[in-house]
Design a protein that fits this description.
The complex is a heterodimer of chains A (277) and B (345). Chain A is α/β, with parallel strands linked by helices and 277 residues long. Chain A is built from six helices and 16 strands. Chain B is 26% helix and 27% strand. In chain B, α7 links the parallel β16 and β17. Classes of the chains: A alpha/beta (277), B alpha/beta (345).
Chain lengths: 277, 345
């Protein structure tokens, strides 16, 4: 079977901050990592390949430096890695990103038919969780989002446990299909030494906008209907209000709870049939 | 139609709220959005409509009017009984193409974040994810969509200038719940579902409902977290009762895990889970940096600690200085009283 994994190199967001003077992102010196959800997507693809036989192909869109993430990914045992890199891709929103990845996946599909495309649930930088469903729609594949377990797979279908608000859902889709992956899906492996050595010298294939039949109106800034008009730091954490409950605990707590409801921090919802989700 | 540009004589008008109804349950965010949609529609000067796609939804239509919809678009069909992307995306996309709303909103729930990107892709328009603030630019009348990104480290305001509709998913429990007014009604527009069961490639085999406590930590909307201030495992029922009063999920610090009082899957922080609930209530937690990195992007932090110098107070919106053994039972009682006739958030 042929598994394709969409893998994004992302900044380690725990270290990204806003420069308070310029209100721009401070990315300098922030380490790049494989998007954590994509690492689990890759792990699942490799496990299924080892069980079913076949091949794992990785596709990533990003700057040339993203090669590093692809080498790292190869060290876990993938078979092929392709980096889509072109200045014309820069500034793409999730609609354009899904378009760019889809055109590449269609070419891969034409060469070697794909059974499952895996993406992460979301990327930890943009956080939209929109790219996976966008690719599924464009490919015309059914999608199973928020996957936490692949229960069954055969040549024609896949059954996945999905995480939803109210509980877990077991859903079955005909192949080819697209699955977005939660971290609970599996435990990551460590790379073996021979795989690490092979990966260190691996050269990912580089595809640019000219290597594929791209419509330039659908990619980059031009192809992106959304635009970021302003960024700013989240509401400050300092200067919170202190409530002294040492002398009159009862009054202090009543006062706090009153505020919490008044400011809609906690809201009352009418109890719904079927219980709370 | 490949894309949906503004220009070209098409009239895109109205604010639409997609009501989420699945497994017999209406997601409360649907009504929060009718409340928010009312404000947006008033600023623009347009109609507020609800969209209901599902099976046997007459009671949902009544509720939509009660929560403020002026008009309700309905597709009632057995293929829509359980949520599946294909028929839902088909249904919503069909309605949008036919009636051309200017803005459509849906909850940023597992379902909203599944089907809305599918709809936006079909319509070739923009979609802003997981918004926490919405507004209308007074001059351009564009929808200003504000959302956290980079794990909550930054906020971004996003515009969709030249394609329609403007689409956002909105985080649950951020917008206020509007008043429910019994007996309101309005126009009902019924349409047909164009997809038949044999065209749909996914089947829902089983649904395993979970209770509030088994919600995964990183999805929990309210968390009650406990630290070593609780002093002993035998005192844990104190915080469990507080959590129960709010339907909250219980979490803890590494200190508590190392003491053997709770399991590691409850641990928040650098070597545990990162959480981003609407409300994080920290009980007897000092606020070590390794703990803070896992929870400081929570929307609201309430801390209870008897040490005025505790680091947790630096990130808390409300810091209660006091003895947790006095304060926590009072909190539990007060929340229980307020939530007598409903559930929190
Ligand atoms: C502050 C900010 C806010 C933004 N808000 C929005 C918004 O609301 N709407 C919008 O449309 N765009 C938005 N964007 C743009 C968006 O981040 C980019 O389009 C990005 O390329 C894709 O979205 P994502 O990072 O959210 O990925 P997600 O959609 O969250 O990623 C899901 C999965 O798709 C795959 N994937 C995503 N990108 C790639 C890639 N480059 N290569 C390979 N696989 C990939 C991965 O498997 C990933 O796990 C925003 C950007 C910024 C900086
Ligand atoms: C590499 C590394 C990784 C780590 N990862 C994590 C992590 O993922 N998560 C994590 O939580 N920690 C982590 N830690 C540990 C962290 O540094 C702290 O030791 C830990 O968070 C402290 O737990 P605590 O707040 O429960 O305990 P303490 O620091 O002992 O705090 C107890 C608090 O309770 C208050 N208190 C006591 N009695 C009362 C009372 N009667 N009423 C009110 N308040 C009272 C005290 O004033 C004090 O502030 C990590 C540490 C390292 C070195």
């Amino acid at each position: 079977m042929h598994f394709v994994v969409c893998l994004k190199q992302v900044p380690d967001t725990s270290e990204v901050r806003i420069d308070p003077n310029t209100n721009t992102l401070m990315r300098e010196g922030v380490p790049s990592i494989i998007n954590p959800y994509d690492a689990h997507a890759l792990e699942e693809a490799i496990r299924l390949r080892d069980k079913m036989g076949g091949k794992v192909t990785i596709v990533s869109m990003g700057p040339p430096q993203a090669k590093e993430a692809l080498r790292k990914a190869m060290s876990f045992g993938a078979d092929r890695a392709i980096l889509l890199t072109d200045r014309g891709f820069a500034g793409s929103d999730s609609l354009a990103t899904a378009y760019i990845l889809t055109v590449a996946i269609q070419k891969i599909h034409a060469e070697e038919p794909i059974d499952i495309v895996f993406t992460g649930k979301e990327a930890i930088d943009g956080d939209t969780a929109q790219t996976g469903p966008g690719i599924a729609q464009r490919l015309g594949f059914p999608q199973l989002t928020y996957g936490i377990r692949v229960r069954e797979i055969d040549n024609t279908s896949v059954t996945v446990e999905r995480k939803t608000e109210g509980g877990r859902e077991v859903a079955k889709a005909l192949l080819p299909a697209l699955i977005t992956v939660e971290k609970e899906m599996n435990e990551l492996r460590y790379a073996t030494l021979p795989d690490m050595m092979k990966a260190a010298v691996y050269e990912p294939e580089m595809w640019d906008a000219k290597s594929l039949p791209y419509d330039t109106a659908e990619m980059g800034l031009k192809g992106s209907p959304t635009s970021v008009s302003r960024i700013f730091p989240p509401p400050g954490r300092s200067g919170g209000e202190r409530i002294d409950a040492t002398t009159d605990p009862k009054g202090a707590v009543a006062n706090l709870v009153e505020k919490v409801f008044q400011e809609n921090i906690i809201m009352v919802h009418p109890a719904v049939k079927g219980g709370r989700a | 139609a490949k894309s949906a540009p503004v220009a070209g004589g098409d009239v895109w008008s109205g604010v639409w709220i997609i009501v989420e109804y699945n497994h017999g349950r209406i997601a409360p965010v649907s009504w929060e959005l009718l409340g928010e949609g009312r404000k947006l529609a008033d600023v623009i000067g347009c109609e507020l409509c609800a969209v209901i796609t599902g099976y046997q939804v007459d009671h949902v239509i009544r509720e939509a009017f009660a929560y403020g919809a002026e008009k309700v678009y309905v597709i009632d069909d057995p293929v829509l009984e359980n949520f599946r992307t294909e028929p839902y995306a088909e249904a919503i996309t069909g309605l949008v193409r036919k009636y051309q709303p200017e803005i459509i909103l849906m909850g940023a729930t597992a379902i909203g974040r599944d089907v809305f990107p599918a709809v936006a892709t079909r319509l070739r328009t923009g979609l802003t994810a997981d918004c926490t603030v919405l507004g209308i630019d007074p001059e351009t009348k564009l929808l200003q969509q504000t959302r956290p990104a980079f794990g909550g480290n930054i906020m971004a305001t996003i515009l969709c200038r030249s394609r329609r509709p403007q689409m956002s998913t909105v985080r649950p429990r951020v917008m206020a719940m509007p008043a429910r007014v019994e007996g309101r009604s309005g126009e009902i527009v019924r349409e047909q579902q164009s997809m038949t069961e044999d065209e749909i490639r996914t089947k829902v085999l089983e649904f395993i409902p979970g209770d509030a406590k088994s919600i995964f930590l990183d999805k929990a909307e309210i968390i009650v977290a406990v630290g070593l201030g609780i002093a002993s495992q035998k005192n844990l029922p104190l915080v469990e009762e507080l959590a129960d009063s709010l339907g909250a999920t219980l979490a803890c610090t590494r200190g508590v895990v190392e003491a053997g009082w709770m399991s590691h899957d409850h641990q928040v922080g650098q070597t545990g889970v990162t959480v981003r609930p609407k409300v994080y209530i920290a009980i007897g937690i000092s606020g070590a940096i390794q703990h803070l990195v896992g929870m400081e992007t929570s929307d609201y932090i309430i801390a209870v600690n008897n040490d005025p110098e505790a680091g947790i107070f630096r990130v808390a919106n409300y810091g209660i200085l006091g003895d947790l053994f006095q304060v926590v039972p009072l909190l539990t009682a007060e929340f229980k009283k307020r939530l007598q006739h409903g559930v929190a958030n």
